[in-house]
Amino acid sequence: MTQAMQVPQLALLERLVDSLRAMPEVRAVALRSALNTSQPDSYTPIDLFVVVRESNAEAQLKLGRAALQSIGRIQWVSLLSLLPPQLRALAEGPFRIDLTVVTPATLPAYDGWRILLDHDGLLRERARHSILGDAVRPEHVVELCDAFWWRIFESVGQLKRGQVWQAFHQLGVCRDNLVQIMRWRRDAERPFEGFYNLERYLTPEDQQALAQTLAAYDLRSIAAALLFAADAFDPAA
């Protein structure tokens, strides 16, 4: 079975990029979804950002809508953000398409996106200057440690006040911080991808420690999960 058959949204992506290429205002296009990885599947959304010449938000939004409608079979379009314009469309399949329109001034930071179109070399230049910044630096660890331990501190107060849902929320944030530390330990190539494909990189001990941070809707259960998270959170491991 070919990749196009396994991942049918690739044909949709090709049509969308062809439409964007035909628009003179469009200077560059980049893909930043999991379609850019070695393991996409039929559930993977399309996530593009499009770089256009300097223009107002209304013109950028109009261009984004026109690009989506040009590929046909669009069932719904939502506006997620006006500045910069970010659209989310549901295409027949169903497939999700996220399309963000930016200018050179609002170009996002390089995070591993794949360049599909780059008339002026802008994306290649941005990627080249950003690659050295992809490594985990000491200040990243310090910032995450601060965030984690303050969340633990706040959670204790909420548990004492019986604010179960708020404590439950704080536990989830602590788990996110723990996942980031684990990712940094185990995945040097893509250290900032959060939960994505996390199972491929964690050791059985990591998996068990992370599972112990899951809790029921119960003060004792949440307190125990917070203690497990605190035990597992070791930046030096």
The percent range for strand residues is 15-25%
Share of residues in helices: 40-55%
CATH class of the largest domain: Alpha Beta
Number of strands: 6
Q: Return the CATH topology of the largest domain.
A: Beta Polymerase, domain 2
The number of helical elements comes to 8
CATH architecture of the largest domain: 2-Layer Sandwich
In round numbers, the mean pLDDT is 86
Question: If you had to describe this structure to a student in words, what would you say it looks like?
Answer:
The protein has helices spanning 3-6, 9-21, 57-70, 122-130, 138-160, 164-186, 204-211, 219-232; strands at residues 26-31, 46-52, 74-82, 85-91, 95-102, 114-118. Helices cover 46% and strands 18% of the residues. It folds into two domains: 3-133, 2-Layer Sandwich (Beta Polymerase, domain 2), CATH 3.30.460; 136-232, Nucleotidyltransferases  domain 2 (Four Helix Bundle (Hemerythrin (Met), subunit A)), CATH 1.20.120.330. The protein is of the alpha+beta class and 237 residues long. Strands 3-4-5-2-1-6 form a six-stranded mixed beta sheet, with helices on both faces. It is elongated, with a radius of gyration of 21 Å.
Which key phrases capture this entry?
NT_sf, disordered N terminus, Four Helix Bundle (Hemerythrin (Met), subunit A), Beta Polymerase, domain 2, Polymerase nucleotidyl transferase domain-containing protein, Aminoglycoside_adenylylTfrase, alpha+beta
Provide a short characterization of the protein structure.
With 237 residues, the protein is α+β, with helices and mostly antiparallel strands. The protein has helices at residues 3-6, 9-21, 57-70, 122-130, 138-160, 164-186, 204-211, 219-232; strands spanning 26-31, 46-52, 74-82, 85-91, 95-102, 114-118.
